[in-house]
């Protein structure tokens, strides 16, 4: 009798267990070596399906059906559908199927030969997995990144990877399945891919979290970019994009200035609304809410918003500038708002400890910031150039102005460019950057010193690394609407103007792409005067960039240079010259002259050169002395001082008794120049060089 009761209890317990298992949701993780866990120290605890199981908990059963080397293509070198893991996945008959395939299809044995079959093969795979469970929820993933260190990156992998990503998006649309992104959350962290293909344990955790959020819809609730704070300034007179994150399917409502707009967060948690254009004004309250959370931002103004960026001369503080004491008394202006993104650690010649190095690897380089009204205290620690730029806009436009500053001392241009832009536009600069001669030696040396205590120096991130400051300082702004950019940088690239001529257009284009505005104004400062031999060539190169990149303007600063100090202290005229470009070109104030004389053309005639300028009305010398630093050369290129005179028709005649038939002309070609050509407004002419056209 007792034995029968025990048997009955065991049978009852078994039935309960079977019933409990039957109620569980089965998640099949289909994929290649990345799903399998290749490269991990312990795939049994670190592979992404294992981590996913931990996150989902006991209601789910997660199966790992990853096969190293597997291709999606049925004619590939190792088709997934011919592997035992595929058969096991069919037997598992998952209620949710997560597919990550395609990385191995970038192999030259596969994609070049069989690309035309990819979409059909993927659709067929999905059909077979649905056949064993018609109610299965199928989720396919955009592929994880392949780092530029991959040996086949430039010979095909880069381009084929992009083509396969597009094909995967096509599959998602054709099959009516969910598409999630394994690429975007990992792309800014190349150090998580030790062999350029397989993520480490941290990377696997990011994949697991991505899948967890896709399955559950849990994205942590309503969240905004950190640039949304009290006292912010919103861009006026343009449709206003507001976007953020919420849990999938949550209703999001945005309200400001009597306007209320609603939307629903997509399955990836992303949402956005576009508010109608608002006139300058405020203060308002901006509320962004879901049924479970409300974010309230008070004292919000509507006006003009500019991003102020670059290296140390943009970072240079107002309290350090020549007119600091006079500026303090004028700083109190509630309609001028400042968002100051300062570095947590300066790139001084010191070694950083382990906690700093870890934070850098997680792109946590900037301190937390918040919008603040301009006061003597707040402005004194803000960028001097940016402050004077904003003050002139305030005085001229009489609307609120918001300035975001994220400049970093010593930073090279390549650090500010998006990874995609460099991978396609200048991939050579990404290779082994600490030993790369495209990058200035002192930049590499300082970085090497800073990360000297890193366990793995080749994978340690640094602010001067290509792409780093874009990923740490531009992406977090999350396309916060701005009117334009002012930029003061170049000192860390002046050793190689040819490389900079490739980098600077990429930088401008990558930011315009980020803000989805291909005409976004971008005004920059030409390098100043200092005793560095390469700088005249670099200054002239910067001048020519205006001809190559539309909607740009350049502020000349050579007249305020310092022969020994790379940081001239008189920043007020520089900020105001940038503001002149904005007032003239962006805001249409034709009466505001944007620049001093800008070289337009040179007519080489007999023994003289006749030069035409933009903005050359009223040309004269700045100090009453004869015009100086003009030079001419014949074919051999030996330059001699030349006389320059303003003609009756407003041109400049340049000649020298030493040069009978000039072939070359240049102006302000000294590293530290005392050039003195200005226009009627007193604005200085730029360094320039020209030569007689060859017949």
Describe this structure in words.
A hairpin with a 2-residue loop joins β8 and β9. α18 (497-514) packs parallel to α19 (535-548). The chain is 31% helix and 22% strand. It is globular and about 95 Å long. With 695 residues, the protein is an alpha/beta fold. It has 20 helices and 28 strands. Strands 6, 8, 9, 11, 12, 13, 14, 15, 16, 17 and 18 form an 11-stranded mixed beta sheet that branches.
What would the keywords be for this entry?
eleven-stranded mixed β-sheet, single chain, five-stranded parallel β-sheet, 20 helices, about 700 residues, alpha/beta, about 30% helix
Q: What's a quick, concise take on this entry?
A:
The chain is α/β, with parallel strands linked by helices and 695 residues long. The protein contains 20 helices and 28 strands.
List low-confidence stretches. 5-20
* Overall spatial form: globular
CA radius of gyration: 30 Å
Q: How many H/I helices?
A: 20
SS content category: alpha/beta
- Strand content range: 15-25%
Overall pLDDT metric: 95
For the largest beta-sheet, the strand count, sense and barrel status come to: 11 strands, mixed
* Alpha-carbon distance between the two ends: 115 Å
In total, how many beta strands? 28
Percent of residues in helical segments?
25-40%
